[in-house]
Amino acid sequence: MNQAILLESNADNIDFMIHGIFSIKVFGQEVWITTSHACILIVMAIMVIFAIVANRKLKKAKEVPDGFQNIIELIVEMLDKMVEGTMGKWAPRFVNYISTIFIFILMSNISGLFGLRPPTADYGTTLALALITFFMIRFNKAKHQSAKDIWTGMCSPLPPWLPIWAPINIISEIAIPISLSLRLFANVLSGTVIMALVYGLLRFIAIAWPSVLHVYFDLFSGAIQTYVFCMLTMTYVTQACETDE
């Protein structure tokens, strides 16, 4: 079994599959630690280290910021503006969560630039993120809307006493985590598959020029998919928080 985490251009057995690294026994069941787990831990470790360094730097923030402080402030300002522009008055409640998943998904998507298998190319990762969004929608809808408002929305565009559209609207609500997770997963996986084919089939002539493909599939497409996932999350949650009052 191939236990490689990195996608190296000179490897003889490059593929895009998820491989087991080692297994452990949990309640008598064999549980595998895979390349996806390893790559997620690497991404999380980088985020934690960056957060610790940034926190210490901001504790000693200068009135005239230097290079690293400028980067931190730029990232925070950009994320704050993005969340506020979409969620309005609800932004302060969700800015920390949206900023966290934005950075995590972006770093996961672009990790292919550094030879890692993107964690978001694993459906288990994208489904978990989409389920968090789904439960946030349900929680905030129950918190901010009455049962009557929820039922009226389910029957829309017809009156609540004529629930013909209710089954369709219920299906559309259930489809939210599926569509969110599949969109992110499929786009990232397609780039991973293409790059694996380029390196696996071309091998010795795949030198330097595949960097252009990495820029598109990992950087450009990865940034777009990150923005789309977070934008849809913010839109759904904002709609759940709004009432007719």
Automatic annotation (TrEMBL):
What role does it play?
A: Key component of the proton channel; it plays a direct role in the translocation of protons across the membrane.
Where does it mainly reside? membrane
Record HAMAP family: ATP_synth_a_bact
Q: Which PROSITE patterns match?
A: ATPASE_A
Segments spanning the bilayer are: 31-53, 94-114, 120-139, 184-209, 215-237
The record's section on InterPro entries has: ATP_syn_F0_a_bact/chloroplast, ATP_synth_F0_asu, ATP_synth_F0_asu_AS, F0_ATP_A_sf
Q: Which residues form the signal peptide?
A: none
**Domain of life here?**
Bacteria
Look up the record and give one Gene Ontology term from the biological process aspect: proton motive force-driven plasma membrane ATP synthesis
Q: Which CDD domains does the UniProt record give?
A: ATP-synt_Fo_a_6
Subcellular location field? Cell membrane; Membrane
**The organism of origin for this protein:** Agathobacter rectalis (strain ATCC 33656 / DSM 3377 / JCM 17463 / KCTC 5835 / VPI 0990) (Eubacterium rectale)
Q: Quaternary arrangement and interactors, per the entry?
A: F-type ATPases have 2 components, CF(1) - the catalytic core - and CF(0) - the membrane proton channel. CF(1) has five subunits: alpha(3), beta(3), gamma(1), delta(1), epsilon(1). CF(0) has three main subunits: a(1), b(2) and c(9-12). The alpha and beta chains form an alternating ring which encloses part of the gamma chain. CF(1) is attached to CF(0) by a central stalk formed by the gamma and epsilon chains, while a peripheral stalk is formed by the delta and b chains.
Q: How does it sit in the membrane?
A: Multi-pass membrane protein
The alphabetical list of record keywords is: ATP synthesis, Cell membrane, CF(0), Hydrogen ion transport, Ion transport, Membrane, Transmembrane, Transmembrane helix, Transport
Task: Point out the gene that encodes the protein.
Answer: atpB
What cellular-component terms does GO give this entry? plasma membrane; proton-transporting ATP synthase complex
Pfam families to which the protein is assigned, alphabetical: ATP-synt_A
> Per its record, what are the GO molecular function terms?
proton-transporting ATP synthase activity, rotational mechanism
The protein's name:
ATP synthase subunit a
Q: Which family does it belong to?
A: Belongs to the ATPase A chain family.
